[in-house]
Specification:
UDP-galactose 4-epimerase, domain 1; Rossmann fold; seven-stranded parallel β-sheet; alpha/beta; 16% strand; 336 residues; 13 strands
């Protein structure tokens, strides 16, 4: 592990999961804000050039690795590391044991070590997947207010693990005084993330499908299900702003939704990607893992407690994301 020099009184931050999409963007943002930043993950970030002070390749399911990485009383730890992916990964059922074991162990290890080292603040990235399935059956009117989380009934083992880890951090807060902040992310997207490795989320997958159809001269794309299931999608920059506001708050610690309340059908998401490409395509609906019928961020609490909520229109975020993915699709063609 590198022992880079830290400027006196410079704030220190550790980003667990810095090799991932959100973690990489967050690590770079913290560095730009003046933090000394260490990142840790199983692999280097494949899409982003990390500008941080130190990066450690390590498996956070191993308590020995966590002990080595959390080697000081960091001012802030951001715990985003998890075994996760898009619907094809989370809802297929074949990764359930790994998701629960790996993500659970990461949070047990990091939370325990944060208490040991008297870390000043820790952020935990939970997920909208922890909300009850029974509140998300109606695609037109899902209920995802923060106080709707119980009685618990997530639609996936991924959601159950997120719920368990929320409770664990709250228990560490109650019993040991750990200053834990919790946000429930709702479908974060943007450039410089997974787009064709099986772990991509719906916006990236849709942009890729449209870009490949345009490249190959095809007039059709495929979508899992009937396309009438609803979701909201939050652009990465807005996600990071919400996280930083939560960490800087002196009175509110969550759990709180960080997501957009601009709900669209998956068919409409595809149309927005087509609009970004300037190309009208037909849609073929096929069988595939779907998740719940409706999901939308309820932003009343974040507006009340932090005086802020995301506002970037989905079309603008998709346009930025499509431009990046379209370029990646073209580069992949050239390499063949």
């Amino acid at each position: 592990m590198h022992k880079e020099k830290i400027v006196s009184k410079q704030k220190t931050a550790l980003v667990c999961g810095a090799g991932g999409f959100i973690g990489g963007h967050l690590a770079n943002k913290l560095k730009r804000e003046g933090f000394w930043v260490r990142g840790v993950d199983l692999k280097h970030n494949p899409h982003q050039g990390l500008e941080i002070d130190d990066f450690v390749i390590g498996d956070l399911t191993d308590p020995v690795v966590v002990k080595e990485v959390v080697d000081r009383d960091f001012d802030e730890i951001y715990q985003l590391a998890a075994d996760m992916g898009g619907a094809g990964y989370v809802f297929s059922g074949i990764h359930d044991a790994d998701i629960m074991h790996n993500s659970g162990m990461i949070n047990l290890n990091v939370g325990h070590r944060a208490v040991e080292m008297k870390v000043k603040k820790i952020f935990y990235s939970s997920s909208a997947c922890m909300y009850p399935e029974y509140n998300q059956m109606n695609p037109d009117n899902p209920n995802l207010a923060e106080d709707s989380a119980y009685p618990a009934a997530p639609d996936s083992e991924y959601g159950w693990e997120k719920l368990f880890s929320e409770r664990m951090y709250l228990a560490f807060k109650k019993n040991y005084g750990l200053d834990a902040r919790i946000a429930r992310f709702h479908n974060i997207f943007g450039p410089q993330g997974s787009w064709r490795d099986g772990k991509e989320k719906a916006p990236a997958a849709m942009c890729r499908k449209v870009a490949e159809a345009v490249r190959d001269g095809r007039d059709e794309i495929e979508i899992w299900g009937d396309g009438r299931q609803t979701r909201s999608f939050l652009y990465i920059d807005e996600c990071l702003e919400g996280v930083r506001r939560l960490m800087d708050s002196e009175t509110f610690f969550g759990p709180v939704n960080i997501g957009s309340d601009e709900m669209v059908t998956i068919n409409r998401l595809a149309e927005i990607a087509m609009e970004a490409a300037g190309k009208k395509l037909s849609i073929k609906h096929i069988d595939g893992p779907l998740g719940v019928r409706g999901r939308n961020s309820d932003n009343r609490l974040i507006k009340e407690k932090l005086g802020w909520a995301p506002s970037l229109p989905l079309k603008e975020g998709i346009a930025k994301t499509y431009a990046w993915i379209s370029n990646e699709v073209e580069k992949a063609r050239v390499k063949k």
